[in-house]
Design brief:
Rossmann fold; 7-stranded parallel sheet; 3-stranded parallel sheet; elongated
Length: 326
């Protein structure tokens, strides 16, 4: 993993636990698997604990690690470094995506509540209307009670968002072709096809993985189905949303947006979205940061402990799941 990430994710408590569980060699941490000293070290390695900054585990690199049996990832997606050769060799892979989903769902809940009151946009309005707060009336009805929230993707995050929305007096709709209607209902929502969900929403929040099939899942045609004044929230991946189409809708003032991810990321400095009073952009902060990342480290160490005691993993990533998940 990236050494700077290691410093954040493995502080005294995590390092002590790691030392108690395994025999550590030198170097303990690296983001360069091609260094001669690292290549020599890999010959004896049975387990890798990885995080952001792990290089791709190519066939050539895995050839240096003939004893490797398991990879415990202290972050969400493993797409950036797990290769077909990992699956071919039958190496166990786990991740901490469930733990990473927690702060994203928390951020989304806050964004939904703020969207109902138009808080991010009123905050911008206040900068140029300091003497008269009557401008708030121009943002329409400022309420969350009775709103309809559309959740696209009943994923790890999407499911948690639905559960957290139970605390509000809102109607929650879910669009996900792979979701079980009974599970959606049990979580407190109704499952609808995407074209039926979109025209009913006051707030639309996206929680689908970045896959070829989800590229521009929400494009010009889908945005056109949203009612005037709908707020779109994206904490998933920028590519699931057509940025150019969103720019047009927001520039016309028809839609509002709260964007924690963009395509590209960051947006070009010339993007009109930066200057629009009905758009809030944050620099990809919804996911685990700071102390939240150590929750993922603890999860990976839990998996390591289960592995060492012969217990089955709780968060294994399979080759089949790898094809359709984040």
């Amino acid at each position: 993993m990236d050494p700077a990430k290691f410093g954040v994710q493995f502080q005294e408590a995590q390092l002590r636990r790691l030392h108690d569980l395994v025999e550590l060699g030198e170097p303990i941490v690296t983001d360069d698997l091609d260094e001669p000293a690292v290549r020599r070290r890999l010959r004896d390695v049975e387990v890798l604990v990885t995080s952001w900054g792990c290089p791709p585990l190519t066939t050539e690199r895995l050839a240096d690690a003939p004893r490797l049996q398991a990879i415990f990832h202290c972050a969400g997606t493993v797409r950036t470094f797990v290769t077909d050769e990992v699956w071919r060799r039958g190496i166990l892979v786990t991740n901490a995506a469930d733990e990473n989903a927690i702060p994203v769902a928390e951020f989304t809940l806050a964004a939904v509540i703020f969207a109902g009151k138009k808080v991010p946009f009123l905050a911008q309005d206040a900068r140029s209307n300091r003497a008269d707060w009557s401008f708030a009336a121009g943002r329409g009805e400022l309420t969350n009670r009775g709103r309809t929230i559309g959740v696209v993707g009943f994923s790890r995050v999407g499911r948690r968002v639905v559960e957290r929305l139970r605390g509000l007096e809102v109607d929650v709709l879910v669009a996900d072709p792979y979701a079980d209607p009974a599970e959606v209902s049990a979580a407190g929502a109704r499952l609808l096809p995407l074209p039926e969900l979109l025209p009913r929403c006051d707030v639309l929040t996206l929680h689908v993985p970045e896959l070829p099939s989800t590229h521009h899942l929400i494009g010009a045609a889908e945005l056109a189905l949203l009612r005037d004044g709908t707020t779109l929230i994206n904490t998933a991946r920028g590519s699931v949303l057509d940025t150019a189409a969103l720019e047009r809708e927001c520039a016309q003032g028809r839609l509002d947006a709260i964007l924690d991810v963009t395509d590209p990321e960051p947006l070009p400095s010339t993007s009109p979205l930066y200057d629009l009073p009905n758009v809030m952009i944050t620099p990809h902060v919804a996911g685990s940061l700071g102390s939240e990342t150590r929750r993922m480290s603890e999860s990976a160490l839990d998996e390591l402990e289960r592995y060492l005691s012969g217990q089955p993993p709780r968060a294994a990533v399979t080759a089949d799941e790898f094809m359709v998940s984040a």
